[in-house]
Task: structure prediction
Amino acid sequence: MPDRGGGPTGPRIRVGRPSRRARTLLMTLGVLAVLAMLFVMFSGFWTDWLWYRSVQYSSVFTTTLWTKIGMFAVFGLLMALAVGLNIWLAHRLRPPLSAMSLEQQSLDRYRMGVAPYKKWVLLGVAALVGLIAGASASGQWRTWLMWVNGVSFGEKDPQFKMDVAFYAFDLPWYRFLLGFGFAATVLSLIAAALTHYLYGGLRITSPGARATAAATGHLSVLLGVFVSLKAVAYWLDRYGLAVKSSDFKAAGNWTGLRFVDANAYLPAKTILFFIAVICALLFFATLWRRTWQLPVIGFGLMVLSAILIGGLYPAIVQKFQVQPNEQAKEAPYIKKNIEATRKAYDIADTKPENYSGKATVSAKDQLRKDADTAASYRLLDPNIVSPTFQQLEQKRKYYQFPVTLDVDRYAGKDTVIGLRELNIKGIPKRNWINDHFTYTHGYGAIMGAGTAVDGAGSPIFTENGLPTSGQAGKYEQRIYYGEKTEQYSIVGGPHQELDYEANGEKKTRFQGNSGVSLGNPFNRAAYAVAFSEPQILYSGAIGEGSRILYNRTPKERVEAVAPWLTIDGDAYPAVVDGRIKWIVDAYTTTNGYPYASRTTLGDTTADSLTAGNQTRTVVAQQNQVNYIRNSVKATVDAYDGSVKLYQWDTEDPVLKTWMKAFPDTVEPKDAISDELKAHLRYPQDMFKVQRELLTRYHVENAAQFYSGSDAWQVPADPTNKDGNAVPPYYLSMKMPGDTAQRFSLTTTFTPNGRPNLGGFMAVDADATSKDYGKIRLLRVTSEVPGPAQVQSKLNSLPAVATFVRDMKGADSEIQYGNLLTVPLDGGFLYVEPVYAQGRSALYPLLKKVAVSYVDASAKEGDAARDVTVFENTLGEALNQVFGVDGETPTTPPPAKPDPTKPPATGDAALNQAIADAQKAFTEGEAALKKGDWTAYGKAQADLAEALQRAAAADAQRREAAQPSG
Result:
């Protein structure tokens, strides 16, 4: 045994190998560490598989997984073989003897150092480049699936007469193959050159020839392959011109060929293709000629041609042919771009209708009468009243409502709806058991009439309480899946959940089939690792029947089961078939539609509501697109989380392609129940994309499009100080020529750089309507005030200044609601609810309604045609704006006692108040069944007033009963 010691007099220390027991222990620990690392890596895969199986979309997981594995294996192996084979070949072609030069002598020690490990170096380099290439290729799984499953569009591009599917599905795949080929060739060339240099096949400073014949031939072939690929690239570039984006002052972000592309770049690419083919043949010829003279000349010619033909010549054409007469030269290509863009965004049938903005009715009474039926004016602004819902219907701190509520239709009426979801931060005592086992779900859908409020300015609830009751009937009220439900919960096991608190705590246990079973230790261990929560492994609260729920937001679930869809930013709830269903609109997109201009979804769908609100942000697979369809309607059950995808656009080739790639994941359109269909609506993000395109593409004349004289813009929200775009609004209304109201999604336009109204757009948003999706676009031909001008005029009214001053004096904050725009008898009616929120009232109440009727034919000072009013109720405001006497109350005033009778006191007053309250409650229930919201609102106001009198009478009675002194 060797020893180490100091000097001759010092102690000698004996050093030996570790004992067998120590070696065994170290080996065991090493194996356990490796197994633990592998389990950590495996746990993510395993939990994903369990989740997809639990939602019955395991085919999505397996198809995606096997496609990624296949791409990784095939392209990783191809790259490894390409690089490894060229390294081996360069070593095989090395010269037998190296020249005895100083350069070669310095390389000898590297050759000697590598010699014992040549095979391992070869395998290591090949494996490394293969892993990198495979990982990169696996990210192209969507490109592969679209190419192999692509179906025809049935439309051809105007330049090359190729089906649009070639650009959408084929060209991206060919470009990927080309890019991979370039990468493999360049890496092989570098690896071969280094190997040749190391073994003397290439020399830099040694005397004599710089390269051996073998090295010359090998490298020439690789260069020939590179130039061949460049030839293919030139050929594909010709087609790429049809989907190329460029800046064009007449159109901004332009896609497709322009004059210089068709007449300079296109022929240049064709010429360069043939030059590259000839140059590649010259490189291949060095296998026989063993000289690089001709290939180098050919390569130089190709580079020079690329500069002259591909760069200088198009610049000359642009400068001397296009610029002197650009409008005429570009007109045919602008026409192609307009037609393709309108098709790609499904606005080809949208034709602007001239709308004068001048009133066609002169009688004030008729205008007032028509105003009553022109729209169901939504006074309850879903973007403002969430705090009101929160204050009046939260019931417990551990419940919450979304910041922005949703608009739907119930009993044919516009209704504002919000779900009472779980607020984990409001749990009285935070701990792991409470957070994940006890408080697991929200409870109930709260609904308010969209067109009316009670006498105090609060919503008239048509479904409320805990549990809720009202117009929704009987339904499953527990909400395990929602927009605010982001934490995991463990349910169904031995630990009971808190259901709700009303007259004591109610307990429940989840009965759904969703979630993943934690019944075996392996699953528990996997989730303990995946969620970094060791208590999942050993907690006694988990047992037989326990299931873990996660990925609980609707958009998150739909995006997971359909990763090929783009998800609308606004998922909304509906009570359907006895369940609460989240309805999620989803889109198929591509950025390969020839000649169609691209748009950036993140920017186009942004407005004053999405700013800072991530729950309203679109979930986009590709942010830049130039084709979009609302092809899928999806639902997520709020109780069991089940996801359903329904085919909505039966003609969309992109959806058909994905349905081939993922069969049996999308259900047919006729599987949508009638009750569900009644709650489907036209999606906001699709509408916002279309309105942005229509700011320019409502113009179909090429010359007018080029000049930009009729370009529009989406105005900034006049009620928002941040300058973000005005959001579109849902409301039931009549467009010119309609005889009945339609549930619509609407927006306004202003001319570019101007504040006046330039256009008005509305789409039939009712999925049960035969005209669903029909966009009507009004071009305002006269000078009509726009939203910002109307808001400015409102702010300048003395009545508004007085109101604001009084509210501020009462320490209240003013909030302007949605400024609704409605066409009315040739003019436009603007309606805006105004809310006030005081320190004592923690929620906003509707206090005023502003109304303005703008008419381009009005004379200066004509009170009936160009006036903005600010009144207590909508009825008063409409009467005032049209100069009509009388009251048509839309917001019912509180009941008032009869002044001719002496007020009752004592028990009589209490009994009378109770009787009045009972009467008001009965009348309210009767009105609710009939769907008479005006009568219901009046009954609610009478009920509130009667209860106040009862409380006051009871207090007086108690005070009178107290002994004096």
User: Anything to note?
Assistant: The radius of gyration is 37 Å.
